[in-house]
Write a structure and sequence with these properties.
Layout lengths: L4 E10 L2 E11 L4 E5 L6 H8 L7 E6 L2 E2 L5 H7 L1 E4 L11 H10 L13 H8 L14 H14 L4 E5 L7 H13 L6 E5 L3 H7 L2 E6 L2 E7 H5 L2 H6 L6
Parallel strand pairs: 3-8, 3-9, 6-7, 7-8
Antiparallel strand pairs: 1-2, 1-4, 4-5, 9-10
The protein binds adenosine-5'-triphosphate.
Length: 240
């Protein structure tokens, strides 16, 4: 099967800084792929280029075989790529359910069956039904993260990019999040996740790709990648 996302020779310069230096990466249909790497290795830039926040300096991004390189974020969202931010993004003054409703209005949909046909169904899925009518701004941090996931899912992605989804969550909240994300491929949603937490990545991902100074240095089954001498060298003295 061809990959849902094919990244070829992707590069990004910020002035004199090379954030991405010719990255090739494929995300397969139905997988949960992890992307790891030290601070500043280019992970968020990779997501920002795929989602159209930044234009690449070179290379291409194919989504389901279509060239989406350099398209605007709304066009990429409409094509079916969803994104959660490191900071949960919601309208603080609006209700939780209202936030999900609005997120679902501002995107196109593809022809795939919608596993959560209503905003309420999405809130049930992420476990926030009890606070449906609360203002988003009063939610505790962990719930705000779950709302961020619901907002991304409301855009009906077939590929979801998660940027440090468990940052700041306690163990119970992280376990809940892992349980939700693992269900996504069963709903037709492929996932690519960035995180520094290797335990989380081992729970979520059968495959990892590792970036270092903007280049991919390893890519394969999670256990093999974590034992790769090149990866161990990068993380020497770190938290691997
Ligand atoms: N908008 C920008 N302008 C200038 N430089 C940038 C910009 N965004 C990222 N960079 C630089 O590009 C490099 C890669 O940064 P990026 O945020 O992609 O790394 P990262 O792997 O996501 O890091 P972290 O794990 O700390 O989030 C860094 O040197 C960073 O300073």
């Amino acid at each position: 099967m061809s990959p849902i996302l094919a990244i070829n020779g992707l590069s990004k310069q910020f002035g004199g800084v090379t954030a991405l230096a010719g990255v090739d990466l494929a995300i397969e249909e139905g997988e949960i792929l992890g992307v790891v790497g030290p601070n500043g290795s280019g992970k968020t830039t990779l997501f920002n280029v795929v989602t159209g926040v930044h234009r690449p300096s070179g290379g291409t991004v194919l989504f389901r075989g279509q060239d989406i390189t350099g398209l605007k974020p709304h066009a990429i969202s409409r094509a079916g790529i969803g994104y959660t931010f490191q900071q949960a993004m919601a309208f603080a003054g609006l209700g939780v359910l209202e936030n999900v409703r609005i997120a679902g209005e501002h995107v196109g949909t593809d022809s795939t069956a919608n596993p959560w046909p209503t905003p309420q169904a999405l809130l049930d899925f992420v476990g926030l039904s009890a606070v449906a009518n609360e203002k988003a701004g009063v939610l505790p941090f962990g719930s705000l993260r779950l709302l961020g996931l619901a907002l991304a899912l409301a855009t009906r992605p077939s590929l979801l990019l998660l940027d440090e989804p468990a940052a700041g969550l306690n163990d119970r909240e992280t376990t809940a999040l892992v349980g939700l994300v693992r269900q996504l491929p069963g709903h037709g949603i492929s996932v690519c996740v960035i995180d520094h937490d290797m335990k989380l990545m081992q729970m979520l991902c059968r495959r990892l790709a590792v970036l270092d100074f903007g280049s991919k240095i390893s890519d394969g089954p999670t256990e093999a990648v974590l034992a790769d001498p090149k990866v161990l060298e990068v993380y020497l003295g770190g938290d691997l």
